[in-house]
Amino acid sequence: MKIYFDQFLESFGKMGIGMASIIIVIGVLIISVMLLNLFTSKKIKTSRKIIFVSALLVVVIGVSLLNGIRIEQEKEEERIRIEKEVKEYVENNEAKILLYFDDYFIPTGYLAPEKPTEIKAEGENIVIIYTLMQEISDAVNKEELKASYDNGKSDFNLVLAELQKEIKELKSYEFRVCDEKGTVLVSVIADGK
Amino acid sequence: MLEGFLDKILEVFSVFTAVSDPMEWLKMAIMWAIGGLLIYLAIKKEMEPTLLLPMGLGTILVNLPLAADVGATSSEGAINVLYYAGIANELFPLLLFIGIGAMIDFGPLLSNPKLMLFGAAAQAGIFFTLIMATLLGFDIREAASVAIIGAADGPTSIVVADKLLGPSNPLNGAIIVAAYSYMALVPIIQPPVIKLLTTKKERMIKMSYSQSDVSKTTRILFPIIVTVIAGLVAPSSVALVGFLMFGNLIRECGVLDSLGETAQKVLANLVTIFLGITIATRMQGTDFLQLETLLILGLGLVAFVFDTAGGILFAKFLNLFLKKKINPMIGAAGISAFPMSGRVVHKMALKEDPNNFILMQAIGVNVSGQVASVIAGGIILSMFA
Predict the structure, then answer these.
(1) CA distance A143 to B174
(2) Contact check, Cβ <8 Å, A15/B131
(3) Regarding beta strands A125-131 and A172-178, do their DSSP bridges make them parallel or antiparallel, or are they unpaired?
(4) What phi and psi values does residue B112 have, to the nearest 5 degrees?
(5) What is the arithmetic mean of pLDDT over A82-93?
């Protein structure tokens, strides 16, 4: 029978985390029950009980607020980091999207500039926005415009899979083609599968 | 004309022609034998009859050829409909937990909350089994689903296996059968392990018990506080913990006696009936008769053994620092098989010394094991789901 040592090592780590987590939770429960027994005991005055509960509430709310602020800051830093990484990649790898128009797939550089107008993180997605050139924008039948992304010199699926190893929240790329007013004409999603 | 008549007769008994592969018949026969064994264990040996009996008959039912109407081969069959109505969406185990919560008296635990540590230590078998399962080739989620057998808690095993593997995974049947069967075998599994890890002198340690009153307010606030803490610290366990504590709150509030009685008896029995026969959908020969099934049954036993060992060894570790020693056997009661495990430990103590009564401590630890096993299930879900 084959023995799987890689998985064994991974599970060893999980074992430690799991046992530690249970002990922490049970520890919290023990302390809570002891406090509960103390709280419901008649030996302590009601006024002190009120003070205790108030202090507990203040601590809980304070910790939650601080934690909330910390999480928001981390999210913002993460968003900026993701945007920077993707921008670098798009610039260094000549990533293109193709616009399907009149039975032809036409790469960016012709109907829209090669470089995206904007790259931003929106929730779990990286949004890459191209803007149709002004002269084309009026001529193109926007209802018939389609888009696809070009695997040419870059493969966004591979890029996405690599980024997802580090940024677990990242789910997909969305390519948007907009007119000069910012109206989204068409979008296509690459989900890294 | 005679031939035509014979053809018509054969059409009625079409099962004998529809299944022509002898291996299929062999698999069915083996599963009938397994179903029969479960029924025998339930009736003759009185091992968890509430579950093993319906599971046994269900196993026979779903392994009959062309049993589409019961749901063996048809998604519209009754058993499959029940399966997706109550097990695939984890509804039945959670409803059962309301009944279990209504049956549990947390008094001994509340008067001595430190006993919860033993409940936590007795979940060690889960994580040890996780390692063993990965070593034997199960991927990490399968290993976690197998390891949760060590929670010694049927509903928790069902919920975790469903969430990690999906409701239609062929391993689910073996996991659930192992969980319930080994719970029934606790009086056989635990004593040898306890004797191996303890000396006679340790087994004879007396523990005093002083009944301290637990106020009604404490009893009412406890389930609420546990639910909130579990929800905040281990959110994946909130469904399991929440339903268990809801049942307990119905019991302790003092104003819902009829609901409490209904939860303990009618609800628990009703759900158990559906659960038992519906689990059998995962007991079809093609899914069950695999090498993985044997491995799962073996690993389930490992989980129970190491749960027992974990609790005992923790108690022995504590004894290194305590002046007033703990009887290490109570660590073995931290397994979630309530109240069997507590009674096993109590009986073993009496056997060593007829004046040694450690029932209350053992039951307190046993009850804490129930809470700890549910939290362990939640932690497993948060780590692997």
Answers:
(1) 55
(2) yes
(3) parallel
(4) -145, 75
(5) 69
Q: Across the strands, what pairs with A188?
A: A175
Q: Would you tell me how many other CB atoms lie within 10 Å of the CB of residue B19?
A: 13
Place of tokens 């268990």: B244
> Whole-angstrom Cα distance, residue A113 to residue B137?
52
Measure in Å the smallest separation between the Cα of A34 and chain B Cα atoms.
7
Whether residue A33 and residue B116 make contact (CB cut-off 8 A), yes or no, is yes
Q: In the prediction, which pLDDT does B58 show?
A: 87
Containing A99, the helix (H) or strand (E) segment is strand A97-101
Q: Tell me whether residues B130 and A18 touch, CB distance under 8 A.
A: yes
Contact B126 A18 (CB under 8 A): yes
Q: Do B130 and A11 touch (CB under 8 A)?
A: yes
Q: Are A176 and A129 in contact (CB under 8 A)?
A: yes
Digit-coded pLDDT (tens) for B104-134? 888 888 888 888 899 999 999 998 999 888 8
Considering CB atoms only, which of B133, B375, B383 is closest to A25? B375
Per residue in A135-190, pLDDT (tens digit) is 666 666 666 666 655 544 444 555 556 656 655 666 777 777 787 778 887 777 76
In angstroms, what CA-CA distances link A51 with A28, A40, A61? 21, 14, 15
> pLDDT tens for residues A98-128?
665 556 556 666 666 667 788 777 766 778 7
pLDDT band at residue A4 under the 50/70/90 scheme: low
Lowest average pLDDT, out of A47-61, A150-164, B37-51, B128-142, goes to: A150-164
| Contact indicator for B126, B138 with CB cutoff of 8 Å | no
Q: Which residues of A touch B135 (CB under 8 A)?
A: 3-5, 7-8, 11
Tokens at B178, concatenated: 């192992």
Most A CBs within 10 A among B302, B370, B371, B379, hence the mutation to make, goes to B379
CB distance from B313 to chain A under 8 Å? no
Sheet holding A125-131, edge to edge: A118-122, A125-131, A172-178, A184-190
Q: How many residues are listed for chain A in this entry?
A: 193
**B267 in contact with A, Cβ within 8 Å:** no
| Interval B87-99 mean pLDDT | 88
Question: What confidence score (pLDDT) does residue A154 get?
Answer: 42
**What's the pLDDT score for residue A153?**
41
**B372 contacts in A (CB within 8 Å)?**
22, 26
Q: What is the ipTM of this complex?
A: 0.75
B70 pLDDT exceeds 80?
no
For residue B118, the Cα-to-chain-centroid distance in whole angstroms is: 19
- Residues listed for chain B: 385
CB-CB under 8 Å, A33 with B110: yes
Measured between CB atoms, does B123 come within 8 Å of chain A?
yes
Q: Any idea what the Cα angle at residue B167 is, between residues B166 and B173, rounded to 5°?
A: 110
